[in-house]
Amino acid sequence: MEKLGVNVSWLLAQLINFILILFILRLLVYKPVLNMLATRKQKIQESLAYAEKVQADAANQQKDFERKLDDARREAQTAAASAQQAAEKERQRILAEAQEEAQKIKEAARGELDYERKQMVSELRQQVVDLSVLGAQRVIGANLDDKKSRQLVENFLNEMDFGVKAGA
Amino acid sequence: MLKNPKLWIAIIALFAVGVVIKLFFPFTTQAVRASVAVAPEVIFELGSFPVTPTILTMVLVFILLVAFAFFSTRKMELVPSGMQNVMETIIEQLIGLFESIAGPMWAKFFSITATIFLLVLLSNYFGLIPGAGSIGFIKVGAETHTDVQNGQVCFQNETTHACDPSGIFVLGDAPSFVETYDLYTKAQIAKGIAEEPHAAFVPILRAPSSDINMPLALALISVFMTQVYGMQKQGLKYWTRFFSFGRLLKGDIAFGLIDVFVGIVELISEIFKIVSFTFRLFGNIFAGEVILLIMAFLFAILPLPFYGLEFFVAFIQAFVFAVLTAAFMRIATAEHGGGGHEGEAHH
């Protein structure tokens, strides 16, 4: 033992040295560092949980937002479609109205024309009758009974039939 | 490392300083022959306490460790930086290591095992610092014959008178005081004039683990605390590991005797753990020192690979000491199932 250098005072010095270092390190390093590691671990776990929650929230919001956007888009589409439909209907209505109007105008014009023609024909008849009576008076030189002669011409014309009845 | 110019400048500057000292002041340091001693030499006495190079180095280790501990944890922050980061990384690695060995019990053993690891590691590395073990004084031994003259310790008897050569000496293969002194005294002895005085080279710093007291102290603490933890966990039942007379007293002679025998073997192995812990660390580090010394005297570049090897050994020894302590503590705290034979796993 002596040869190896085992010596009670040196051994005691080493023992005291170790115990001293043990307590100093325990006080300065192990406790604070282990505490710090535990605190950090907890903090990280909390942060991760929070991040997950935020992410889920964000995803939810995103979904919500997309759904709303879809709704809005669909609404806009239906609105546009209905507007188009209304416009088409309006167009059809206006077109029909216009056609109707045109038809009416045409018909009115035709009626007027018809009436005028009839008028003209009846006037013409009147004059023809008058002229015929006058002509005949000259020819026979007698004053024909106006009423009777007129009746005669009228009858003649009726027999001739211009396709239009007198007085019609 | 190659990309760091500062490092290269530092290395070159160090060499330049050495060359300048060698060229211009060749006598400031004297080279002496090495002497290998298992027991550490005494440098001086502090009161009645003999201070050895290993004690001196241990004080340095202590200061360094405490300073590092203090400065790294002075301002603990949630987001670590600088020294705190380094310390936390070390502690985290150690936690991982001891958790893998001691399981959920690691927190209980952590202070002891981690301190053992850090202390042994630093102690081992301090012996590898260039100059540790190779810069020192010359001491004339034979303490019974010394007296102090002009502040120097001298050796004196009827025929011989020699004082400690003063100054710093460096180990090296050169004609030296010790060599010539040895030749002189040997001649004297041959003539039958004087008994051989012991002159030795005493380094200023040496690895604390190369002094057997340090591994012995750690081994004692390790084994003692193992028993303490075992008792804490299992109470008095823990001692049935060594003294199990239960079955013998019940009348089961055959198995009872086996139990008693196993208990005795356990007890012996527990005591020899102290020895094995001590000599594993001491032997490795001391042998490393001697190998480096021998290689240095054989050939100039030869110590280099051995230096690398010792660097590795220094770490491994610290690792082994701490890990074995953790493992033994775990075994001691584990419940003995049934007859209590599970405790033999560490044989």
Q: What key phrases describe this protein's structure?
A:
heterodimer, A: 168 residues, mainly alpha, B: 347 residues, alpha+beta, 4-stranded mixed sheet, 3-stranded antiparallel sheet, disordered C terminus
Low-confidence stretches of chain B: 142-151, 337-347
Q: Provide the helix percentage of chain B.
A: 55-70%
SSE ordering of chain A:
HH
If you average the pLDDT of chain A, what whole number results?
A: 87
| Separation, N- and C-terminal Cα atoms of chain B | 44 Å
User: Secondary-structure element sequence of chain B?
Assistant: HEEEHHHEEEEEHEHHHH
By DSSP (H or I, 4+ residues per run), the number of helices of chain B equals 9
Counting helices, strands and paired strands, the structural category of chain A is: mainly alpha
How would you classify the helix and strand content of chain B by structural class?
A: alpha+beta
Oligomer: heterodimer
Largest β sheet strand count, sense and barrel closure of chain B:
4 strands, mixed
So how many helices of chain A?
2
Molecular shape of chain A = rod-shaped
Mean pLDDT of chain B: 79
Supply the number of structural domains of chain A.
1
